[in-house]
Amino acid sequence: MFSRLALRTGAVLRQHVTKHPVIVVAARSGSTEQWDKANAIYYGPERDVKNFPITKMAEKTPNTRMGIFPESWFKYLEEKTGVSGPYVLGTGVVLTAFSKELLVIDHTFSELISFWIMFALVAKKFGPSIGKYLDELSESYMKAKWHQPIEDAKVNSKEMIKQIDEGLWREEGQTHLFEAKKENVDLQLEAQYRERLSEAYRAVKSRLDYQLDRQNTRIRFEQEHMVNWIVQNVIKGITPQQEKDAISKCIADLKGLAAKA
Amino acid sequence: MASKRVARSVVNWGQFAERVHPNQREYFRAFKAKSENFVNRVHKNPESLPKIDFDFYKARIAIPGLVEEMQKGYAALNISYPTDKQNLKSSIDTESKAAAEKLTELKDVAAKMRQGAQDVIDKIDKLPSPDEMTMEMYTDYFPEQKLDPENNPTFWPHTKNYQPGPHSDAIN
């Protein structure tokens, strides 16, 4: 219960602890050695757990009887007096107090009775709901300031590990890069070599083609020249008399053709 | 002659691309385009010296001995393989060695960081719960957060936001 917690220094401490999510800070700086040292101090083998046990704050109050008297008192007395003993003792103490006027019944005594009756009624009626509300408050506070930071730290650490692994994996991919770079050099050399081959091929081929074309051109020119020369000489060789004869022969042929038509 | 002749890329570009950081994709793309350009340049020309049909020319060129001489010369042609004059390959080797050294250094650092993160995962559950922790324990577990009004006094209300000067709330 929160109310009991609040009475103890633990609550104050917890407030201080959880005000600053130190877990996250510690996780970031990676100072888990300090945790190890502290663990060795408080939970290590040197700790005398028997005489100085590790105390833990109880969440709920111990059981009571009649709302206010601790169960442990009854248990302690029952061994010696039996089950009714504690009640007899309590009644006896009250009666003794009345008898010796340690507890005086005066005109304000009814106030005492009515106050406690009202207190009990209020506690009975609103106690559980108030307790529930405070429990929820406490839980949400703990979640926000303790459990969540721890969870975050774990998730962050896992993410960090994942990123480191992936980053290293990527970095190791540099072998591909250098392989590719070397290959590029080889490829350029190869390209250069092939270009040289092609150039040699082209040079030889073009020379041969040149020779071939030259020869072809020469033959063609020679032929043309020969033909021209022969034709010219033949034309030169024709005399005017022959020309005249040929023309008159042509006219005679034409006349013959015309008579036939 | 070079030790080996390459005609196509044997680099596993798929794997390479996978490993490239998304921020460096642009550089990778440019590099790959360049490499492909080289491959294309290689493929522009035939692998070996092309054959010339000398018989064709022999039948047609009348100059005696010309084609034969050409053929002999062409057959005896020894085209030298280009050498890596700037010694690029060895410089790439040096580069890769330097990168490998850097990688080992990086690996050391990464291993430390990884161990730190792993420690947090392993040990955070062993921290005593707030129900168990006393002020003294708190001081031992988180010394940088402890209450130390002698050496590190604070102003009311003693929370970080109200302290003068830069405070570390920003990292939260």
Structural overview:
The complex is a heterodimer of chains A (261) and B (172). With 261 residues, chain A is an all-alpha fold. Chain A folds into two domains: 2-61 and 105-172, no CATH class; 177-260. Chain A has nine helices and two strands; from the N terminus they run H-H-H-H-E-E-H-H-H-H-H. Chain A has helices at residues 2-7, 9-19, 22-29, 32-43, 71-81, 85-99, 109-172, 174-237, 240-260; strands at 64-65, 69-70. Chain A has a two-stranded antiparallel sheet. In chain A, a hairpin with a 3-residue loop joins strand 1 (64-65) and strand 2 (69-70). The longest helix of chain A has 64 residues, at 109-172. Residues 1-28 of chain A have low confidence and may be disordered. Chain B is mostly helical. Among the domains of chain B are: 87-126; 128-163, no CATH class. Chain B contains six helices and no strands. The mean pLDDT of chain B is 84. At the A-B interface, helix 2, helix 3, helix 4, helix 7 and helix 8 of A face helix 1, helix 2, helix 4, helix 5 and helix 6 of B.
Short description:
Chain A is an all-alpha fold.
Number of DSSP strands of chain A? 2
Largest sheet of chain B: none
Annotation field: number of helices of chain A: 9
Low-confidence stretches of chain A: 1-28
Shape of chain A: rod-shaped
Question: Structural class of the secondary elements of chain A?
Answer: mainly alpha
Mean pLDDT over the residues of chain B:
84
What is the helix fraction of residues of chain B, given as a range? 40-55%
Tell me the fraction of residues in β-strands of chain A, as a range: under 5%
Question: What is the H/E order of chain A?
Answer: HHHHEEHHHHH
Strand content of chain B: under 5%
Q: What is the number of strand segments of chain B?
A: 0
SSE ordering of chain B: HHHHHH
Instruction: Please give the largest β-sheet of chain A.
Output: 2 strands, antiparallel
Task: Compile the SSE list and pairings.
The complex is a heterodimer of chains A (261) and B (172).
Chain A: H1 2-7, H2 9-19, H3 22-29, H4 32-43, E1 64-65, E2 69-70, H5 71-81, H6 85-99, H7 109-172, H8 174-237, H9 240-260
Antiparallel strand pairs in A: 1-2
Helix pairs in contact in A: 3-7
Chain B: H1 13-19, H2 25-44, H3 54-60, H4 66-76, H5 88-123, H6 135-141
Subcellular location (chain A): Mitochondrion; Mitochondrion inner membrane
Main location (chain A): mitochondrion
GO molecular function (chain A): proton-transporting ATP synthase activity, rotational mechanism
